[in-house]
Design goal:
CATH superfamily: Ribonuclease Z/Hydroxyacylglutathione hydrolase-like
Radius of gyration: 17 Å
Number of helices: 6
Helix content: 10-25%
CATH class: Alpha Beta
Order of helices and strands: EEEHEHHEEEEEEEEEHEHEHEE
CATH architecture: 4-Layer Sandwich
Number of strands: 17
């Protein structure tokens, strides 16, 4: 399995960046999967720069209803005429972020919600032989503090992130968990994936939404230590983080977790 980061906030090799996420996944059996699409057409341009043909993608997934993960959906549907796109049924509801200049719409383009190649997901869903999507995550362990700034489906109610779906890939004895932003908390998502497959994932790739925590330094340090300790309970799992984790927070996790966690920048490629 080969996983290539096409979009991230950071670049490993000069690849153009934007705030967002897009992963190209090549399975051993030839299936090609696109997980998220950034906020613009940049993911498509970066794929060309890296010699990847997104017209060959078979399955595409939008992890949740925020523009930095599904803003490129229109470009994907125009450029690829074969892939089925899996989106949670609530992803096209309105979503907002509270910023310095007030409440800002950060949702997807609702005009795309009726596109014939979109499959609206709800309960856990199996796709072909290797892929499973799930959104039924419970628990509040290490819940990202920055979620307090996010709202939907109305501008007056904090987002519950019921529209967030995560991917499990099982192939060749490996199990890979991929989470776009882990708004429900990466520990809670990890626990649910472990319940589903009966063991801890071999690899986890996840944004962890640690940016804009709003915590004071002492509480932030406590939160990071708790998060690192929870992740390190999965002693045989290798973590890759990206996007909304933020480089500064990754560095803090790395100082505790060591080589068990690595940052996956735009242009990086891992072979599993």
């Amino acid at each position: 399995m080969i996983i290539t980061s096409l979009i991230d906030d950071l670049s490993a090799n000069g690849l153009p960046t934007e705030h967002g996420l897009c992963l190209h996944i090549q399975l051993r059996d030839g299936l090609q999967v696109l997980f998220d699409m950034g906020q613009s057409e940049l993911f498509w341009q970066n794929a060309q720069r890296m010699g990847l043909d997104l017209k060959e993608i078979n399955v595409a997934i939008v992890s949740h209803g925020h523009y930095d993960h599904g803003g490129g959906l229109v470009s994907f549907l125009e450029g690829n005429d074969q892939a089925t796109v899996y989106v949670h049924k609530d992803a096209f509801l309105p979503h907002y972020s509270l910023r310095e200049d007030g409440l800002t719409y950060i949702g997807l383009d609702p005009k795309l919600s009726n596109h014939p190649r979109l499959v609206m997901c709800d309960s856990p869903l199996s796709i072909q032989d290797h892929l499973r999507l799930f959104s039924d995550v419970q628990g509040s362990c290490c819940y990202p503090p920055g979620n307090r700034l996010l709202f939907g489906s109305t501008s007056h109610v904090n987002d519950t992130f019921c529209h967030e779906q995560n991917l499990i890939i099982e192939e060749g004895g490996l199990s890979v968990l991929i989470a776009g932003c882990a708004h429900r908390g990466i520990v809670n998502i990890l626990r649910r994936s472990t319940e589903m497959i009966g063991h801890a994932p071999t690899y986890v790739l996840a944004g962890m939404h640690l940016l804009k925590s709003g915590l004071n330094p002492a509480d932030e340090a406590t939160f990071i230590r708790q998060l690192a300790a929870e992740l390190m309970h999965y002693s045989h799992t290798q973590f890759y983080t990206m996007h909304c984790t933020g480089k500064a927070y990754y560095d803090k996790l790395r100082s505790i977790m060591g080589t068990q966690i690595t940052y996956l920048s735009g242009g990086d490629q891992i072979v599993l």
